[in-house]
Amino acid sequence: MLRKLLILGVFAGTSASIPIVYQSNPQLVESLLRSAAPGKQTVETQPGVNLASVPDKPAAPLPMGRRVVVAADDRGHFSSAFKLNGRQIDGMIDTGATLVAINISTARRIGLSLNPSEFTHEVSTANGTIKAAVAVIDRLQIGSITVNEVQTIVLDDKALRTNLIGMSFLNRLDKYQVENGTLLLVQ
Based on the structure, what is the number of domains in the chain? Predict the structure, then answer.
């Protein structure tokens, strides 16, 4: 019984002293409360720092410039209409493709004339190794974003049915990010 009274007295004395400790050193009490809260990280404070005015996460600056959002299709691919050298074509954005890849029909539509002798590069595809030509697209546009002089690879129509917008375009942007089924492009 005496033991219970002693524990109760210590508890009551500690409880009564919390407001006094808080008034004399609020950072200490806030630090103790933060360390006791589950899932929160302990933050060590320096004297004179008011934690109430410091945000948990700094606000990320919004990127400036032009933005385009492309929604994923039913298969999760980011397909869209693009303009290559001013001509509209359909394509799919592919972060796994090193270069923009177009087929011969598309190359002709956008004004790239290639000789058979230019198909000297070997490219590995899902269907095996094929010959390809390297070219430069003067202007590639999607929405309000324009990138000039984009390196591309031209493949046979049978080898490439869908034009791919690869990293030779994406690396020239300020930012690209996938989130919630959309692809954000920022220039």
Answer: 2
Shared domain check, 82 and 47 = no
Closest CA to 100 of 186, 144, 160, 174: 160
pLDDT averaged over the chain? Answer: 78
Residues 6 or more apart whose CB falls under 8 angstroms from that of 81 comprise 88, 89, 90, 91, 142
Residue 131 CB-density burial (10 A; 0-12 exposed, 13-18 middle, 19+ buried): middle
Q: Please indicate, yes or no, whether residues 89 and 160 belong to a single structural domain of this protein.
A: yes
Q: Is the pLDDT of residue 24 over 50?
A: yes
| pLDDT tens for each residue of 48-107 | 443 343 344 444 444 456 899 999 999 999 999 999 999 999 999 999 899 999 999 999
Highest mean pLDDT among 3-17, 37-51, 132-146: 132-146
Q: Which CATH number fits the domain that encloses residue 125?
A: 2.40.70.10
CA distance 128 to 105: 21
The residue among 68, 77, 74 whose CA lies nearest residue 162 is: 77
Residues 35 and 71 in one domain: no
